[in-house]
Amino acid sequence: MDETADIYESHLRAMLAPDPDGDIVDWLEANVKNMPGPMPGAFRVESTPYLSFVLRAMTDPEIHTIVVFGAVQMGKSTLLELWSAFIAARTPGPTLLLQDVDLNAKDWQANRLRPIWEATPAAKSKISNTEKSNWHTHQFQRCTMWVLGADNKRNLQRRSIRFLGGDEVWSWKKGHLGEAQRRRTAFTWNGKSVFISQGGVEGDDITNLWNTSDRREWMFRCLACDTQQPYEWTQLIYPEDAKGGGGWDIEAVKKGIKYKCKSCGHMHDDSFAVRQEMNLKAAYVPMNTSAPKGIVGFHWNSLCGQWGLSWGDLAEEAINAKRAYDEHGDETARIEFKQKRLAESWVENPDEDGGEILPSGYKMSDEWTDEAAMVDGKMVPAPITDEHKKSKQFAWMRSLNVDVQRNGYYAIVRRWATDGKSRGKEWAFLATEDELRAFQLKHDVSNFFVFLDSGDGPNTDAVYRTCSKYGWNATKGAGQNEFAWRVQTPYGIKVAYRPYSRSKVIQVGAQSCKLFLYSNLVFKDALSRLRRAGAHTYPEDFGDEYRKQMQSEHRTKNNAGTPIWLPIGDRANHLWDCEVQGILFAMMSKIIGKGKNKGATVAEEKPAVEAETA
Q1: Whole-prediction pTM value?
Q2: How many CB atoms lie within 10 A of CB 347?
Q3: Which sequence spans correspond to the domains of the chain?
Q4: 183-186: Cβ within 8 A, 24+ apart
Q5: Quick check: 470 and 450 in contact, CB under 8 A?
Q6: Burial zone of 212 (CB within 10 Å; 0-12 exposed, 13-18 middle, 19+ buried)
Q7: Which of 234, 270, 301, 486 could covalently link to 311 via disulfide, CB atoms 3.0 to 4.6 Å apart?
Q8: Nearest 10 degrees: Cα torsion 314, 318, 321, 326
Q9: Is residue 603 very low, low, confident or very high in pLDDT (cuts 50, 70, 90)?
Q10: What CATH number has the domain spanning 21-212?
């Protein structure tokens, strides 16, 4: 009994004693001896001063929820990694750390978290000798720490959590953020939630939570007038002589770019030393003074980075992103720049069918010398020579996109160039399968580049049989906007997301075909942008029926505020659906929409979904 009382008293004294290690930042710099990554070494906050304020909030007893919107490659994930070591050593309690999916959580544990624990003697000494041998559960003295994926709802249930950390929250499934937060119900008074993210999309869970916080903005002081102000993209000034008739001279932009003070107009040079000096007296300023007590937010963008990308590098990214949109309607890079570099959520602008797109000045029978081709498994830009055509693996970059009806087929052949531009070649309504096959052969379309919509229930099995007969592809539009892919990157296998799925193998007797699912919203948005940018064109002799059907849907929002495309009255939309399918061909060929995983190659990708049979 006396021994039990002594143990209880020692624990109580330890809890009530003044903290011998003081400030969390000082403790981390004194105890974390090596940080994993390309620049190993002891933790030092001086190169990322915007992190110190967040770290101190992690030990503030009056703060229970922290939301971080930070630019990529600027240390935001390090916050959770450092926090995990501090928790294990200084404030033990049941802890749940979440990545987007289990695969990435496993990689995170092996290559980031565990090395930091091992390199922090105060945390390493707390690892239990009886720790379980699995990757997702770790036992420290008086502290169990789970590392899991937020996509699996079972990972967010059953446990009572004191400390909750979430990374890459922008990519979590709808509702899973709230599910994770409910794990802290038993520790409302002495627990903490920390959610880390790049920018998301207007209306998603992390953006909504961010909007309820006090939204603290990282602000510097002008080196000339000492006026405090946020880092804003619009204050970057390109040199006047860097733009000519052919567009921006990138090297001239990078050489002469400046940051202009909003108050006195002082031009700050683009250099490490200048950005370091700008950050010396920088601080976070709350922008939402009516936020509930205890919910704080921190935001910084790439402009405050003291190392890595310069302002000139960022300007080059922005120029190329705008060029991709202006020239061929590809908005992928613009979205990624705002989310990843500016750490702001993307706001979709409803497109009320965008006005009528008129035909371009050519006819169906006209030659087009810009059309690309696939030669020996590689896409070759124009001009295509006779030598190219001699290859046994030659195919024009043209797609046949088919909307299947109960009484026939609407079909469009479209030709593509490597820069995202395309031309309609011919469309037709075909009554039989034989006519569709003849239409394909007439226009010399490869079997690999034929896509049939399988969405109409009564026709689905027939579409699968037809596709398996000729080696064509079945497609189906879906309500989800992203599909998980396992991809090989320089850092190992990761889970990435794309607006279309890896092919599912559909077994039809002894034969099979491929089925691709794609996001209706993303593909229709892409088609609309391409048309408005003048990249997705059609000939003068396509006729009024094509023109009318391409004006059959418009973009709006439903009652929940979610973007959606809806029919206009009872207009026929079969040719519109055909052209939407064509976006799948263009994205799979990397003609448009480079995707979120630029380090991967198609040949190295593995499906994140299982094959199914029909």
Answers
A1: 0.71
A2: 10
A3: 21-212, 225-282+302-341, 373-479+499-593+608-613
A4: 183/96, 183/156, 183/157, 183/159, 185/160, 186/160
A5: yes
A6: middle
A7: 270
A8: -160
A9: very low
A10: 3.40.50.300
